[in-house]
Amino acid sequence: MNPEDSEPKPAPQAEVQAEVPKKPAEEVAPPAEDVAEATPPAPVRIAGVSLADGKVAEFDSGEMQLSLGDTVVVDNDRDLNLGRVVFLVDGAEGKTYRPVLRRVGPEDFLLIRRNKKREEEAFDICQKRIAERGLPMKLIRVAYLHGGNKAIFYFSAEGRVDFRALVRDLAQQLHVRIEMRQIGVRDESKMLGGVGICGQPLCCSRFLRKFVPVSIKMAKNQNLALNPQKLSGLCGRLMCCLVYEDATYIKMKKDLPKVGSVIQTPRGEGKVIDVSVLERKLRIQLESETINCTLEELKSGKLRDQRREEEARIAGAQEQRDLTAKPPAKQKEDQPKRGDSRKRRRRKKKPASAKATADRSSGAGQPAEASAKAGRSAEASAKAGQKRRRRRRRKKKKPSGGDGGGNK
């Protein structure tokens, strides 16, 4: 036998598993990506930037604090572009916008001056090429993008123009990408600017973002004179400002009768001959008279007696003139007449006495020097009188002449 088999084996121990108290489950923080998705995204700040062609495009300003009028550099489709901020709004969710890169800095000012000079040179070159090829087009402006890799030529023409040869010439000479863009007369006025007949800068170049259709019906709704010179702007089209008040006039004219319609009044039937939309007044022609009334008076049936009012107004004006007029001044009976006073003023001078004349000639009652001067003047006057008398005598004496030699 094996001694190991003879030794008693220990009894197998029962495996006792102690129940370990479970720890509470720790809250695991979600990843950063999930947190970002849970929080609502910050609203996008949109900047409306007016570009070189006059159009306004929307760009994402990001964290930049922009103000109206700031000049910024934006990321265009293929190149950088320069523009001016014209409005700031919150963008719509789920829409992407191209970014605003930066405000204009010193380096950008150098590029602006360089591009300005290149635009003037390109304008002259294009004008010469158009004249050489005889193309029916009018060059308006040349704009270089801020990067300087592309030049846009704006022109106007009545119809389509084949400018392929012109583009090849310009690209060969300027060594940049060329884009020819045809615009209308309204876009031309918007790009060049000017002053309207109202004395203000053009609306299209100042604040209008897009053009809306304008019709002659808008001028009729506002009771304007249908004069093309007064209704047309610098572009030769109807003025854009006719649109501003058109909706107000249409709304106010709904309650007013049309001109030429026959309506019923408290004094009988009448024909509307004139309508003032803003004052809401009507001018109605009756059988015997013409009346002016408001729409409220016509609906209430209480029309004023305009004839009596006019008579009372004329009488009141005449009475006011009589009160303000000055009454004529009454002449007093004892007051001398105007002619008599003049006659009294014209008194004859008394003849000087012989003594006074002698005193003046002799200089009595005067200082010695004054009397001497008076004596010398009297002698000089006496001598002058004698000379005059001698001349008169010589003139009176006629030389005695004869037919031959006279009596000897």
Topology at a glance:
Elements: H1 3-6, H2 32-38, E1 45-50, E2 56-60, E3 71-75, E4 80-90, E5 100-103, H3 106-133, E6 138-144, E7 150-156, H4 164-174, E8 177-182, H5 185-192, H6 203-206, H7 216-221, H8 228-231, H9 246-252, E9 262-265, E10 268-276, E11 281-285, E12 290-294, H10 295-300, H11 306-324, H12 338-345, H13 354-362, H14 368-396
Parallel strand pairs: 7-8
Antiparallel strand pairs: 1-2, 1-4, 3-4, 3-5, 6-7, 9-10, 10-11, 11-12
Helix pairs in contact: 3-4
Strand order of the largest sheet: 2-1-4-3-5
What best-fitting shape do the alpha-carbon axes yield? flat
Q: What can be said about the biggest beta sheet?
A: 5 strands, antiparallel
SSE order in H/E notation? HHEEEEEHEEHEHHHHHEEEEHHHHH
